[in-house]
Amino acid sequence: MHSLQLLLRASHAALLLVLCLQLGINKAQEDTRQIIEMDFQLPRIAMANEEVTVKLGVKTELRECMVIKASLVSDIPIDGPFNYKQTGCLCNDYPRNFFWDFQVNSTVRIAAVVDIIRQLNICPNDQAVIPIKANRFSVLKMLTVA
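^ that's the sequence the OP posted. Answer follows.
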């Protein structure tokens, strides 16, 4: 009888341990990889009719590659290369940099936008993923014209 009581105590302890492990949050099991990380470099101040260079660095922590389309959007119309949409293959071991050169005449808010799209002949062997969580990312900055 005594050995049966020990066995039951041990099984209760084991069940409690398993329950605690199931309810606990294990940081190692959380998926904390960033889909898209953007580094939007835009001067804060420019002179009227001065050519401005914008750089958008894009990287990912996902193991799979993605086809991305990068573009700029503003609150006032800007002509020329500002409107170019650039497409590329983004992989975790191959971050991308996109550049735009344009002129502005007045203070403007500019958003750098990255869309994850489905397009062939961009990534090697057309092997790319589209995340379910989100497929559009943006960063907003202000360019003041003095």
